[in-house]
Amino acid sequence: MDDTRQAPPWIDSLFSLRFGLGDKTLFHKRVPALTLAHDPLASKEDDWERHVEALARRDRVLVVRSYPVSRPLPTLERRAGLTRYVTEHFQRYFVRLDGSYEAYLSAFSAKTRSTLKRKVRKFIELDGGGRMEVYRTGEQIDRFWTLARQVSAKTYQEKLLGAGLPDGAEALARAKEKADRDACRGYLLFVGDAPVAFIYLEGERGTLEYRYLGFDPAYADHSAGTVLHWLMLESLFGEGRFAVLDFTEGEGTQKKTFGTDSRFCANILYYPDTPSFRLWFTAHLGMDRLSGAIGRALDRLGLKAAVRRWLRGQQ
Hints:
This protein is α+β, with helices and mostly antiparallel strands and 315 residues long. It has two domains: 3-92 and 263-311, no CATH class; 99-242, Gcn5-related N-acetyltransferase (GNAT) (Aminopeptidase), CATH 3.40.630. 36% of the residues lie in helices and 32% in strands. The protein has helices spanning 52-55, 101-106, 110-124, 138-152, 156-159, 169-180, 224-239, 253-258, 275-300, 304-311, and strands spanning 10-21, 24-36, 61-68, 76-79, 82-96, 129-135, 184-191, 194-204, 207-215, 244-246, 261-271. Strands 1, 2, 3, 4, 5, 6, 7, 8, 9, 10 and 11 form an eleven-stranded mixed beta sheet that branches. The chain is globular, with a radius of gyration of 21 Å.
């Protein structure tokens, strides 16, 4: 019997291996891959790794993203004739949307609630500030994309990470197709008629996921991103359409502040023992360790936050 028929779903893809120093992306190396379609909210499946050897080929890598783990895994380890490379560990944050907005807010400490409300109030006090618009239909998403691109072009996500809202017909067409199935949401925060922050989410089977977000760095001191998260969550709870908001990978301040649950996860790659793959993944590990060492040195000198603000254009 072919054991691979019992394997969980894997999807043909291109994996983008990021080379960078801290927030600064230098370049990406794209490689053929199979990616495991794993739900990070589902229970941990201990036996999926037994399928890796059957799926292994010398011309592609296997990618498992956001896999729940109980403890940190070794960075490099030989498994099933491949090298298992754990690129990062992180908490993945979620918001459960199945209760009331009032009950959600009651879980915050009194100090946190007061701080968030003060930020929202101060933003609203700006000249024409505090208006949020929600976009969900195909026609609305078309307008959202135009306005959100104006903000995205100014963000560090686009300038440093190459992760801004895509500027192209293909990405917009995908978003409009999602909108036709009521499977996406766009949110824009305005000051007067000018958009200053955006969030774009896509969802399936009751779960909305972060896709793209950013804010105009000119409004960093006014907490535009925090204000938009507050208003967006109020809207989502009011809708009652989705059960979960998944903040996806990473441990940003907004995710920690607004999340109700989290899981400790790992991103895992399996690559074959070929000269090309060994070269690229060894170089990636070296770059990652160099970036970490620079970050720790800046932290000891008390300069890390200042350098990050400078790179992100917030100062």
